Amino acid sequence: MTSCNLIPLPSKTNLKHPPNSQDPRSFRTNNVNNLRFSRHIKQQSSSQKYPKHYNLPNLLSVHTKNPHAIYKDIQRFAHQNKLKEALAILDYLDHRGIPVNPTTFASLIAACVRLKSLSSAKIVHTHIRINGLGNNEFLQTKIVNMYTACGCIEDAKKVFDEMPVRSVYPWNALLRGNVVLGGRKYRDVLGTFSDMRVSGVELNVYSFSCLIKSFAGASALFQGLKTHGLLIKNGFLGSDIIRTSLIDMYFKCGKVRLAHRMFEEVEYRDVVMWGAMIAGFAHNRLQREALEYTRSMIKEGLEVNSVILTTILPAIGEVWARKLGQEVHAYVIKTKEYSKQLFIQSALVDMYSKCGDIVSGRKVFYGSKERNAISWTALISGYILNGRLEQALRSVVWMQQEGFKPDLVTVATVLPVCGKLKVLKQGKEIHAYAVKNGFLPNASVATSLMMMYSKCGLLQYSSRVFASMEKRNVISWTAMMDSYIDSGCLEEALAVFRSMQLSKHRADSVAMGRILSVCGKLGLLKLGREVHGQILKKDIASVPFVSAELVKMYGGCGAIDKSRISFDAIAVKGSMTWTAIIEAYGLNGQYGEAISVFKQMISKGFNPNHFTFKVVFSICEQAGFADEGCQFFTMMTRKYKIKASEDHYTSIINLLYHVGRIEEAEKFVLLKQSLA
Q1: pLDDT of 477-512, one tens digit each?
Q2: Under a CB-based contact definition with an 8 Å cutoff, are residues 575 and 606 in contact?
Q3: pLDDT single digits (tens) 444-459
Q4: How crowded is residue 620: how many other Cβ atoms within 10 Å of its Cβ?
Q5: Taking Cα atoms as reference points, which of 657, 649, 640 lies closest to residue 673?
Q6: Where does the sequence pass through the membrane (predicted)?
Q7: From CA 379, how far away is CA 350, in angstroms rounded?
């Protein structure tokens, strides 16, 4: 097994200023070397003394230029997102006592917003004050926007409160900042919006757009409906920005019909509105509708842009529409501009991988001239989806050999691989790497670590990781339950569920399904009924996984009549729910009825999967139904083209030995050995 030697970059780098030299090439070489580790160098304060002949990054002597030429240099570096170089010139000007104009500061602020660099933002703000422009209304508005874009609402509010006159623009910047923070911050947005109205500020479409976006992020439907009414009252509903925001909000609140109605009321739709519809369908796991609307948009003469491409490619992968994916790939190659964009390349790799065509995914990846951590992670995910776990683990090493550091997503993706392969050494190495790079407070990384340790048989390590988590979510609670269930510690899993119920987190459909399986295994009918009540209250009984676990829970508790009632109440049945009722009858010793239900499933046109056959073979083994078992085995391999697993062979072999058909059993033993 290849060791996953994760190579961290140095946390600190002791770099000195390049030596004075008349050869421009030496300046260029030294500057490039400095840039490689620029993120590890602390920004120097404006009060630091610079040497007389400080080598500035524009490679030319600043003394010979007039101030306006220097401003142009700063603006050029700012437009190129080279803040380190721009701030070096700014420090030089401050040292020389040369003032800087507002336009130059506006360029620097824009660069800070693009890079979301809070440290640089604070340095720029300090220089603005040094230059006596702290009360400049034009810059104050931009500073508020800068701090909100960098996620620092407190500093944005301080600047906002210092403003003597506030137009709608700084108010909107403050609104936007709370939207960026997301979560339940919509209450702060609503408070700011109310203050705007009280202050008599004339609201514009962007004010309402920010408000609606905050409701979308928090799924606050009631507030969204009230705002919709306010928009109609104030005559803002004619704006495409507002209508697109409303469509997005309704989709994110799960109200697909309301979003569709809003869309249908618009006569002339632009590509942004179409994109909102397509993304909304994809968000609600309505992939086919997303693809259908993409076709409709193209028929109306609108071209697919990069945002829509990155929305539909995952949808294509989810529905296994490989042929359609190839058409989209051809379109990407034809446009050329999109074929160079790394996030589209990564989406193509992901699409092919989900369609089971990892070979095409690899071709896209290795055919790309540029790669980054995101594209490497897409390839690693592809290997995992297609069962190439060892190759996925090796790719982490190859990724670093190309000079790319695994990021937080890469770590969370590769940790479950260590669990499945039970390679504890590599798992611990990745754990150490996550700690060293500050990834561990992240819930997804911690959850992956918990699952990895439990799969490797170290349940106490999973428990320690869970206990050390400062911020837990429903997924981490469910992962801890899963760890205990996989280790056979059902009482402990039940205790975790009860603790979660007492916390601020509420169980989702996955957690409900897990606890139902525990109730079934322990025969806890009373608790199972309580959980059933919560499922009905949350309106998640129609989720296939939940309805199947509900049927099995009643079966496991010996209440087969309740199990049948629950099964009959399911409006849309699938293979999962049919398998559940077959298993429920099997658990209660009603083997003949279980086989009868299986035959009924087939006669009604439902296709059994390998899990269904695993349950059926187990029932045949317990009941001694040798003829039926052999018949179903032939049906599975020939009619349904399902490759027999080790579990399938084991059940059939045990069944045949049990009824004394030794010769047939030995034939199956030979077939089982051929799997190895």
Answers
A1: 999 999 999 999 999 999 999 999 898 888 889 999
A2: yes
A3: 999 999 999 999 999 9
A4: 27
A5: 649
A6: none
A7: 7
Residue 348: which of 309, 396, 305 has the closest Cα?
309
Q: Give the pLDDT confidence score for residue 161 in this predicted structure.
A: 86
Q: Residue 636 carries which DSSP code?
A: I
The secondary structure element, H or E, covering residue 656 is helix 646-658
**φ and ψ at 176, to 5 degrees?**
-60, -40
How far apart (Å, rounded) are the C-alpha atoms in residues 321 and 438?
A: 39
Rg (CA), the chain: 31
The structure tokens listed for 113 are 């917003």
At 70 the pLDDT is: 87
Residue spans of beta strands (DSSP E) within 290-421: none
Residue 61 pLDDT more than 50? no
* One-character DSSP codes across 447-488: HHHHHHHHHTT-HHHHHHHHHH-SS--HHHHHHHHHHHHHTT
Q: Where are the domains of the chain?
A: 269-405, 506-600, 608-675
Tokens of 405: 């550091």
Q: Residues 516, 546: contact at Cβ < 8 Å?
A: yes
Q: Which amino acid is at 303?
A: E
Evaluate if residue 12 carries a pLDDT over 60: no
Please state, in angstroms and rounded to a whole number, the distance separating the CA atoms of residues 360 and 24.
46
* Rama region for 165: left / alpha / beta (φ>0; ψ in -120 to 50; rest): beta
* Residue 452 CB coordination number (10 Å): 30
Are the CB atoms for 522 and 499 separated by under 8 Å?
no
Q: How far apart are CA 238 and CA 23, in angstroms?
A: 62
Contact 78, 107 (CB under 8 A): yes
Distance, CA of 419 to CA of 246 (rounded, Å) = 43
d(CA 577, CA 574): 6
Length of the chain: 676
Tokens of 144: 């508020």
Pairwise CA distance, residues 179 & 212, whole Å = 9
pTM of the model: 0.72
C-alpha separations of 655 from 34, 578, 621, 626, 662 in Å: 71, 23, 5, 6, 10
How many CB atoms lie under 10 A from the CB of residue 547? 26
Which residues are CB-neighbours of 294 under 8 A, at least 6 positions away?
278, 304, 308, 312
Who contacts 535 (Cβ-Cβ below 8 Å, separation ≥6)?
A: 512, 541, 546, 550
Give the tens place of pLDDT for each residue, 543-586.
Answer: 889 999 999 999 999 999 999 999 999 988 999 999 999 999 99
Residue 272, CA distances (Å) to 225, 232, 248, 263 in order: 22, 22, 11, 12
